[in-house]
Design brief:
CATH superfamily: Aldolase class I
CATH class: Alpha Beta
Strand order of the largest sheet: 1-2-3-4-5-8-9-10
Helix content: 40-55%
Structural class: alpha/beta
Radius of gyration: 18 Å
Number of strands: 10
Number of helices: 12
Shape: globular
Strand content: 15-25%
Number of domains: 1
Largest sheet: 8 strands, parallel, barrel
Bound molecules: zinc ion
């Protein structure tokens, strides 16, 4: 059942659990996430980055695939189709394409420009009944081979952006995308507490969920995090299982080269990762 993400995240905030956003890359990915969420009776958010949208032949194709698959698989749990780290133009395209949720990432702009663009997109998104996430304090991660440290968002700026009518807020608290370096200092809970206090209970979003220890995830949820983004971890699981299949020579046995067989171990590995995260986030049975 395709819905916007506002209600499911308010329920998560009130129930002290988090809904996972799992980024999708193709049909197998989408099927794996949807079927696992249904099996566990968990609400779920399908994340689509601008790059993944382009890879899947555009947002309209993605929206059509997700809607049709949701119906064909008889999915009953709430599913949001969400643009991840959208540009201003990307957000507008996804509203038109039939997404149910968008994220506008204006974190690299001066705060005044982030405020102006977020305000405009809140009006457009809500007029079309989509939920909208905004971001303050950029999330670090690897860019051109350099791993940047995650910024820590200012509680005042968070307050300003949260007051614009957005449905949920991504705030940097030392989290980064991709794999965390060995010398990572961990999440900044002091900052998270201040942001939570300054933003009037708005559901908070934790990006870069891959590799954050379970105890930190649980503490973050207790401090108002209601949505956690997982991307790299599914990719690593898919790659490792696919590598295992090929290295074991399975593609050379009988019809092991059939893509439906070749991609099966990787797809099962995505399912296992999604299940593990849904259990950790506490959203199983909350649909
Ligand atoms: Zn992110």
């Amino acid at each position: 059942m395709l819905v916007n993400a506002a209600e499911m995240l308010k329920k998560a905030r009130d129930g002290k659990y988090a809904v996972g956003q799992f980024n999708i890359n193709n049909l197998e990915w989408t099927k794996a996430v949807l079927s696992t969420a249904e099996e566990l009776k968990s609400p779920v958010i399908l994340g689509v980055s601008e790059g993944a949208g382009k890879y899947m032949a555009g947002y309209t194709t993605v929206a059509a695939m997700v809607k049709a698959m949701d119906a064909s698989l008889g999915i009953t749990v709430p599913v949001a189709l969400h643009l991840d780290h959208g540009s201003y133009d990307g957000c507008k395209k996804c509203i038109e394409a039939g997404f149910t949720s968008i994220m506008f990432d204006g974190s690299h702009f001066e705060i005044s420009e982030n405020v102006a663009k977020t305000t405009e997109l809140v009006a457009l998104a809500h007029a079309a009944k989509l939920s909208i996430e905004a971001e303050v304090g950029s999330i670090g991660g690897e860019e051109d081979g350099v791993i940047g440290e995650g910024e820590v968002a200012s509680p005042e700026e968070c307050k300003k952006i949260a007051s614009l009518g957005i449905d949920f807020l991504a705030a940097g608290i030392g989290n980064i995308h991709g794999i965390y370096p060995p010398n990572w200092k961990g999440l900044n809970f002091d900052a998270l507490g201040k942001i939570h206090d300054a933003t009037d209970g708005i559901p908070l979003v934790l990006h870069g969920g891959t590799g954050i220890p379970s105890d930190m995830i649980k503490k973050a949820i207790s401090l108002g995090v209601s949505k956690i983004n997982v991307n790299t971890e599914c990719q690593l699981a898919f790659a490792a299982a696919t590598r295992g299949y090929i290295e074991a020579g399975k593609d050379k046995e009988s019809k092991g080269f059939d893509p439906r067989k070749l991609l099966a171990p990787g797809t099962d590995a995505i399912k296992a990762t999604v299940k593990e995260k849904i259990d950790l986030f506490g959203s199983a049975g909350k649909a």
